[in-house]
Fold:
Amino acid sequence: MKCGFITLGCKVNIYESNALKEELRNRGFEVVEAEDDCDVYVINTCSVTNMADSKSRKMIRKCIKMNPNAVICAMGCYVQTNPEAKEIEGVDILIGNGNKKSAVDKIIECLNNNRKEKIIDILDILETTEYEKLGVTTYDHTRAFVKIEDGCQNFCTFCIIPYARGPVRCKDADSVIKELQMIADNGYQEVVLAGIHTGRYRDGDTNLSKLIARILKEVPKLKRVRLSSIEINEVDDDFIRMMGETDVLANHLHLPLQAGADTTLKAMNRRYNKQYFIDKVNKIKAVRPDISISTDIIVGFPGETEEDFMETYNLAKDLEMSKLHVFPYSKRAGTVAAKMKQVQDSIKKDRTTRLIHLSDELEVEYAKKFIGQKMDCIVEQVTGENRMIGHTSNFLQVTLPLDPKYLKKQVNVRILSVENGKILGIIEN
Ligand code: SF4
Structure:
């Protein structure tokens, strides 16, 4: 049986899809990218914006069209938050969040009864307290992702995620350690700890810092531990102290800023202000002066004035961020911000362009600081002719002359130059 898989959205969705792909393979399915002659299609959807909803619907319809006789299983955030998903003709299985693990059983059930009945398995996610344990042991790259947390209860006014993913639930620390040991035994050098709101990790009295301390002690084979992202108000003193004490914790943090003006932050319900963000970043830089800090910024949030936007622009510049992920504000039905007075599209477009230019400049400026320096790098893959690439601890992507014996290894590289956005280096072990 051939199962075509489509995954939309974030790292957490990718992790969950990987876990399901692994289970499908273990149960005899051939798992492929969605193509014409599949017997089953799984579409793991996203709902972060109205556009993501529409893409999710489009992908479901595309699969139905590819093979109208196949079993169609739609799951995830779009299914969870949009009752209309039930009306899409041709869908056999609908699974929300929090019970994706049941997908493979449901697919087999549906195949066995020749698609006679529609199967709907959608939990009341806001009442869900249990963490759904999914696990992955093999990855395509040297970097493995491990989901340690699900859910968010921050209710930022632009975001639908708390309604799609439910409250914070965490994988117990023993299971995280076990999964990481397996990953390290399988030869992976680097792991990314991922979640919707990773900084809220809790298992009894184990918070994120304590979990990382356990990982460093109990999984010594791992060369690098990275966080997918962490909210600024969850970077506490323990975490900062740990950053100063170990270089296994990557020299890169993704700290979503979203906006630099206090009025916008307040309207977004972000629970920190500009000065708080600055003070925290300075504290982090006191222990890691050359750390790479990347961020997410929403441009054209309802009510954002040109002055507000320039505060964001100047803050990202003054903090010498290494990369800005710029998102023009996009309405999501069902959120508070969708009902606020919107900024004109042309203004959003202009501000987005300016911020993307700034991001390009900041990225090059940050990389140039390391020209001539020797840095540790994990070599990941061959690219083009006689070249391979790897990432340093501070997430510089370095292009190196091809030498296959170093593939998937941690090496020392010297940064030679930054040309047209490409960072060139050589191995100096
Ligand atoms: S912190 Fe805010 S933006 Fe992030 S998932 Fe939670 S509600 Fe959404």
